[in-house]
């Protein structure tokens, strides 16, 4: 039995991504081995592969390194002291974040406490799409204390984080505005948002008096979106590269602004999985690539125009 993993032997273009064979790991006390069905691709994977950001800086002497933080699959082996999970259970998790990674593996050890059980009615594809992106959406909306009746502007509503954030904000009975290109206008309208085509006009020409800005784009788009806000509005900006600049400008304008780093929280994943199971939340899967097509998966992510999530099928 083999355990194929996608590794970065050195930083660089997508073509550096390689597949290696490793041994199937053994579960220690409190851990399980997960046979991974799907691993999701996130922007941080692409950034780290390219040698950018702090996950790359911290792992530069630790190559080859296995990327990946989002997994779904089946429990393959239980270590001692595992309380709830059994071999064969369907699970999902946001694992090894930020420094360990390891999700782009066919088998990986995970602490039982870091995993969520996947309900019978939820597919493993949907479960793999949720961990990092979904928890980012939950935590960003929490930080902004989004309330019923508020006007919430979410930049990039069609992306991995955005499509979950839009649905959660709509579920919280906020009035949701979002930005996207023409191809995603109808999609976001079906999720219950007022969608603005950012290529046609900037958000500031179409949205006013917003109570909250969730910025998933950064840079110029975020600076423009500050003009959409009412006095005392809250801003949560996610792209780390421009967070300092956006917060500085937002503070000057009198807004309550903060950057954020997502923090793994299995209870939040439990809640989202439950919402999916009762039809309150839908994951959008743009494409599933066999693991040996990971180079194409990273190239698609780098376009910056993926609707929803990209997954790797780890068992084919
Ligand atoms: N700090 C943290 O903890 C944290 C956690 C997660 C993510 N992030 C960051 O948050 C950002 C979003 O992450 P993600 O996973 O959602 O990325 P993603 O899935 O790659 O986002 C792709 C989406 O961005 C949209 N988009 C691209 N340019 C746009 C623009 N100028 N205006 C509006 N929409 C635009 C695209 O829609 P169209 O095709 O319609 O343009 C596409 O659907 C990334 O920068 C990521 O690194 C930070």
TrEMBL record:
<dbReference type="Pfam" id="PF13602">
    <property type="entry name" value="ADH_zinc_N_2"/>
</dbReference>
<feature type="domain" description="Enoyl reductase (ER)">
    <location>
        <begin position="12"/>
        <end position="312"/>
    </location>
</feature>
<dbReference type="Pfam" id="PF08240">
    <property type="entry name" value="ADH_N"/>
</dbReference>
<dbReference type="InterPro" id="IPR050700">
    <property type="entry name" value="YIM1/Zinc_Alcohol_DH_Fams"/>
</dbReference>
<keyword id="KW-0560">Oxidoreductase</keyword>
<dbReference type="GO" id="GO:0003960">
    <property type="term" value="F:quinone reductase (NADPH) activity"/>
</dbReference>
<protein>
    <submittedName>
        <fullName>NADPH:quinone reductase</fullName>
        <ecNumber>1.6.5.5</ecNumber>
    </submittedName>
</protein>
<dbReference type="InterPro" id="IPR020843">
    <property type="entry name" value="ER"/>
</dbReference>
<dbReference type="InterPro" id="IPR011032">
    <property type="entry name" value="GroES-like_sf"/>
</dbReference>
<dbReference type="InterPro" id="IPR013154">
    <property type="entry name" value="ADH-like_N"/>
</dbReference>
<dbReference type="InterPro" id="IPR036291">
    <property type="entry name" value="NAD(P)-bd_dom_sf"/>
</dbReference>
């Amino acid at each position: 039995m083999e355990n194929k993993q996608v590794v970065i032997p050195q930083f660089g273009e997508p073509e550096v991504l390689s597949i290696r064979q490793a041994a199937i790991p053994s579960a220690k006390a409190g851990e399980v081995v997960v046979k991974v069905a799907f691993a999701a691709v996130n922007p941080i994977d692409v950034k780290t592969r390219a040698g950018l950001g702090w996950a790359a800086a911290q792992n530069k002497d630790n190559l080859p390194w296995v990327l990946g933080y989002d997994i779904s699959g089946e429990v393959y082996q239980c270590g001692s002291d595992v309380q709830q999970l059994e071999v064969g259970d369907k699970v999902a998790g946001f694992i090894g974040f930020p420094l360990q990674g390891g999700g782009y593996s066919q088998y990986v050890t995970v602490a039982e406490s870091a995993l969520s059980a996947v309900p019978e009615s939820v597919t493993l594809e949907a479960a793999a799409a949720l961990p990092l992106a979904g928890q980012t959406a939950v935590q960003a909306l929490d930080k902004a204390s989004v309330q019923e009746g508020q006007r919430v502007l979410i930049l990039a509503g069609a992306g991995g984080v955005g499509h979950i954030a839009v649905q959660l904000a709509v579920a919280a009975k906020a009035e949701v505005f979002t930005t996207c290109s023409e191809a995603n206008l109808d999609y976001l309208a079906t999720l219950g948002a007022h969608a603005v085509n950012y290529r046609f006009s900037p958000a500031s020409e179409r949205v006013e008096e917003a109570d909250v800005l969730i910025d998933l784009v950064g840079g110029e788009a975020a600076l423009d979106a500050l003009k959409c806000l009412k006095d005392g509005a809250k801003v949560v900006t996610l792209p780390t590269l421009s967070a300092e600049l956006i917060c500085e400008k937002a503070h000057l304008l009198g807004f309550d602004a903060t950057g954020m780093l997502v923090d793994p929280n299995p209870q939040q994943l439990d809640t989202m999985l439950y919402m999916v199971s009762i039809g309150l939340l839908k994951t959008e899967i743009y494409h599933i690539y066999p693991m040996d097509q990971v180079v194409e998966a990273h190239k698609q992510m780098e376009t910056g125009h993926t609707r929803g999530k990209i997954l790797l099928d780890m068992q084919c």
